[in-house]
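Hello,

Our lab assistant flagged a job as stuck in the queue for most of the afternoon. It eventually completed. Since we weren't sure the result was trustworthy after the delay, we are filing this so someone can double-check. Below is the sequence as submitted and the structure that was eventually returned. Let us know if re-running is recommended.
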Amino acid sequence: MAEDSKFTKVTVHSSGSALASPARLILSVFDGVWSSRELIWSLFVRDLRSQYRQSIMGYVWLFVPPVVTAAVWFFLNNQRIIRVETDIPYPIFVIVGTTIWASFISFVQRPLIGFLGGKPVFTKIEVPPEAFIFSSMLRAIFEMGLRVLILIPVFVAYKFQVPPTAFLFPLVLLLLALVGLAIGTMVIPIGGLYSDVQNGINSFIGLFMYTVPVVFPIPESGGYLATIMNHNPLTPVVALARDVLTTGSLEWAGQALITGGVSAIILFLSLLFLRVALPHLIARMGM
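-- returned structure --
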């Protein structure tokens, strides 16, 4: 079939199993990302422009959720409605935690949002679905970088000096990104068929925050909450991200590296599974 552009070729999805050639399957994932690198960047830039084109406040909206959450918890603690004891000033504890958490939520949500946004395209023309997924991943990374900027005036206002371990903060955020992206990519096959998945993530991820030391530290006394937080695989990453920026402690480093490593494997396997499941997903979606 003659074609004028590689982006106008009609894609025929075969029902044959891609698992018949595992090596080819793995290479197809890398090739799909590399061959569409320019498209990934174009989608990333386009989405940024379109999202804030009709917004007066623009990127300020990225700061609103963590700031509002931090302000609520600071007010409750300041008025003695709740009592939270921390090793650092509580406003710094909570603003760092909510900023980290807002970024994690973005990493979880973006892969599925990107997949659903690109569905009308990659089901009809030869564009790897990874292009839309990775452009959304870039969005999450970009938004995380902007959110971190809000910590600077807070630290200056409280005259808080960061420890030497602060240079590790971006690396720990990378571990956080791996965890969120692994979860977000893993749910794509089901989320592509049922909107309940995306609605469920948006509804319940806020409750999940209270099983991680985001707005209060792990309780010292025993109890269900302390047990859950200590065994939550996300706890070491969140705790380490805050510690390297505030206290300088590396207590959670080992567990955080394990969580990040496992998440990287899950992310890669999820991309492989998506490649295998894509023809069946398209058939089920009625495209």
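-- support follow-up --
The delay was a queue issue, not a problem with the job. The result is valid. The chain has one domain: 34-44+55-284. Residues 34-44+55-284 form one domain.
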